[in-house]
Design goal:
The protein is of the alpha+beta class and 703 residues long. Helices cover 27% and strands 31% of the residues. The protein is built from 18 helices and 35 strands. It has a 7-stranded mixed β-sheet with strand order 2-3-1-4-5-9-6, with helices on both faces. The chain has a 6-stranded antiparallel β-sheet with strand order 18-17-20-13-12-21, covered by helices on one side. Strands 26, 32, 33, 34 and 35 form a 5-stranded antiparallel β-sheet that branches. The C terminus is likely disordered.
Length: 703
């Protein structure tokens, strides 16, 4: 569109569950508005939106796509987003750049898991919302029942703006409930006249002037009410329900008109930013000062890294310099790219409301603010934490050199994907939203980055400690001709409480008689205590003793896991004037610690996670019963609204490492969860025996 201004831009995201027809709808809109010469198809791989090889193979969207078209004097920037929860990060990023969300529901499937999540996410972001009941041409569609379900789950503000004429093969049109015709066609399940009153109530609730005139009995014109629809959507008093079939095209023209005329303008949504001295101020799209944000990153095989930017105020110009507060410096903007599906075009500037991409800006990350002033920043975009992990390693030596860079690229472009390098298990673990999410990433590594990997379930980071205390000694003596090795150390090993408090108050001479000094490591809650008297261990060898103990702790004693929550007291030893050296004392300390530890009632500790599980009300009993079988402990429940409950519980990590799969099975894909490690607890004896046996080390029974 020539003379593109902020006032005529409309940013819209198509959201909802998978297979609701969002991509087919977007392809049809491109055709109807003249962008495409034919309507693309997901089925035959001709879609202008699902262009990724993985999307074509799966015939479903895995990454958000941006398309643009002009209609009715408006410039629409439209996002098609993935419908499955596995790729929810792509939807969240798109919502951060838009003012209006269209929640697409399949007429045959009804409300599904991602329908709820998309609806709630858009509401939390303060966006205007519309609902499109798509696929009204399917057999056995009960439109009236579906509307009742929508109103029950999402509220009475959801009101049909039009209703279908017929269903299945007989679906041939829609009837407005705002401007009700004199004659209602056959095949209409819901009388438009019955809906008209609820629609008018929702409209006037958002406009005091209309409300006063309406209450005084004045008849409101259709033009006034039509204009009021957009205002009511912006105010949240109305969430219009529309009907269509993206397959046959019936109802799509009517949907297009409503979307273009009633979607929120950039100035209709109140957004805030943090300014100098942490003051929260409103963003004015008419302000000349630049404020923009990176909401998506894509690794393009031709132009490398692309950072998608939404401009909220001011104008972003090519070849300019802008401040990036996170980096604490200005960066030079090169070329600006306007993206329309797979098509890219250079532009000179982007006004407020515009969405453009920057290329080869390697320092930028999703969530970064770009601004004229270094003191301002936009709120971070909140993405869910990935909960499903797979250990990953290169398949060959050739893959070894490429794997880190390839995984880093994916981490840059997907905020719901993380790479953890586990210090204890020495594993590289990739974390995603689900097994499917990780499968897609593995396929992308192979097809795009030419890296083949092997994956397996990650090891559980158990820990070792002692429940008791024991004293013992070890003499290391080695003579091979010439100078030999000699060192003797005497240790006392005991357990420490996890909630130790202030080390200076805990490690005192009254508690540890004869203590000369102590060294405390808060990461492992371990203390080395020097109680040597009379120089039985020369001071210059004591650091070697400490090093030998730490090496043994890292290697583990009974099962190969890091030792924590214990103290080791060095209280006596012997040396030799010729044969003693640092190596001898380090070796003696290593072996002494191992032997004394084994006699101090050693136990394995397992990580306990704090869980939050969101499930439909009717699945609550199944979830609580299942948690009991996983040694879980219920801690409470919260009502999350929309027929959902949030269960709070603690459980061993080993019992929920594959919880995503089980939860999906129990809830039909309608559940979600998150967890984080809370603390460590001793394992039950039978579980400890199993883990120790699996480690192929000596089994140490819990006394």
């Amino acid at each position: 569109m020539a003379n593109l201004t902020t006032e005529n831009i409309r940013n819209v995201a198509l959201v909802g569950h998978g297979a609701a027809g969002k991509t087919t709808l977007a392809d049809l809109l491109l055709f109807k508005t003249g962008v495409a010469t034919r309507a693309g198809s997901v089925d035959d791989g001709s879609s202008l939106l699902d262009t990724d090889d993985e999307e074509k193979a799966r015939q479903s969207t895995v990454s958000s796509s941006l398309v643009q078209f002009d209609h009715g004097g408006k410039h629409v920037q439209l996002f098609d987003t993935p419908g499955f929860p596995d790729f929810i990060g792509q939807m969240i990023g798109a919502l951060a750049a838009t003012e209006t969300a269209v929640v697409v529901i399949s007429a045959g499937a009804g409300i599904e898991v991602n329908t709820r999540r998309a609806f709630d996410a858009a509401g939390t972001a303060g966006l205007g919302r519309m609902i499109l009941i798509n696929k009204c041409d399917m057999d056995n569609v009960q439109f009236d029942s579906l509307v009742e379900e929508i109103q029950k789950v999402f509220g009475r503000g959801c009101v049909p703006l039009n209703v279908p004429v017929g269903t299945g093969d007989s679906f041939n049109g829609v009837v407005s409930t705002l401007e009700v015709p004199d004659s209602i066609p056959d095949g209409v399940e819901i009388d438009p006249t019955d809906v008209n009153q609820a629609l008018m109530d929702a409209i006037v609730d958002a406009d005091e002037e209309l409300m006063e005139r309406y209450l005084e009995g004045e008849e409101l014109s259709t033009a006034e009410l039509s204009k009021g629809v957009g205002k009511a959507i912006a105010a949240g008093t109305l969430i219009p329900i529309l009907s269509a079939s993206s397959k046959t095209g019936v109802g799509v023209d009517e949907f297009l008109e409503v979307m273009v005329n009633c979607a929120l303008a950039p100035s209709d949504l109140s957004r805030t930013m943090t300014a100098a001295e942490d003051d929260e101020v409103a963003i004015d799209p008419a302000d000349d000062s630049l404020v923009a944000q990176v909401f998506k990153t894509r690794i393009d095989p031709f132009v490398s890294k692309m950072s998608f930017i939404r401009v909220f105020s001011g104008t972003l110009k090519k070849d300019s310099s802008v401040q990036v507060p996170r980096l604490g410096k200005a960066v030079k903007i090169g070329q600006l790219i306007s993206v329309n599906g797979a098509e890219q075009e250079g532009v000179d500037e982007a006004v407020a409301g515009r969405i453009v991409a920057l290329v080869k800006m390697e320092d930028l990350k999703v969530g970064d603010t770009l601004a004229a002033d270094s003191d301002v920043s936009l709120p971070a975009i909140e993405f869910p934490r990935p909960m499903v992990g797979l250990a990953v390693e290169p398949k060959s030596q050739a893959d070894q050199t490429k794997i880190s860079g390839a995984l880093q690229k994916i981490e840059d472009e997907d905020p719901t994907f993380l790479i953890n390098r586990e210090a204890q298990t020495k594993e590289m673990v990739m974390m995603g939203m689900s097994e499917l999410h990780l499968q897609v990433i593995e396929a992308r590594l192979s097809s795009r980055d030419k890296v083949e990997v092997v994956t397996h379930e990650p090891k559980i980071p158990y820990r070792e400690t002692v429940n008791g205390a024991h004293e013992g000694s070890y003499r290391h003596k080695k003579q091979t001709g010439g100078a030999g090795q000699f060192a003797e150390v005497h240790f006392r090993v005991s357990g420490l409480p996890q909630e130790l408090g202030d080390p200076e108050e805990y490690f005192t001479k009254s508690r540890f008689e004869g203590m000369r000094s102590f060294h405390y490591d808060p990461k492992t809650n371990y203390a080395f205590i020097d109680r040597v008297t009379g120089g039985s261990v020369p001071n210059n060898f004591i650091p070697a003793v400490e090093k030998g103990i730490r090496e043994r702790m890292e290697q583990g004693v009974i099962a190969g896991y890091q030792v924590q929550d214990c103290a080791c007291e060095l209280f006596f030893g012997k040396d030799h004037p010729v044969d003693s050296n640092e190596t001898a004392f380090k070796t003696a300390a290593n072996r002494c610690f191992s032997e004394v530890f084994k006699q101090a009632n050693p136990v394995l500790l397992e990580p306990i996670v704090q869980m939050e599980i969101t499930v439909p009300d009717e699945k609550l009993g199944d979830i609580t019963s299942d948690l009991n079988t996983r040694r879980g402990r219920m801690e409470g429940m919260d009502n999350a609204g929309s027929g959902l409950q949030v269960v709070k519980a603690k459980a061993p990590l080993s019992e929920v490492i594959n919880y995503s799969r089980s939860l999906s099975s129990m809830t039909g894909g309608q559940g979600s969860f998150s967890y984080e490690i809370s603390h460590y607890e001793p394992m039950p004896p039978q579980e400890q025996t199993r883990v120790v046996a699996a480690s192929k080390r000596t089994v140490v029974e819990d006394a």
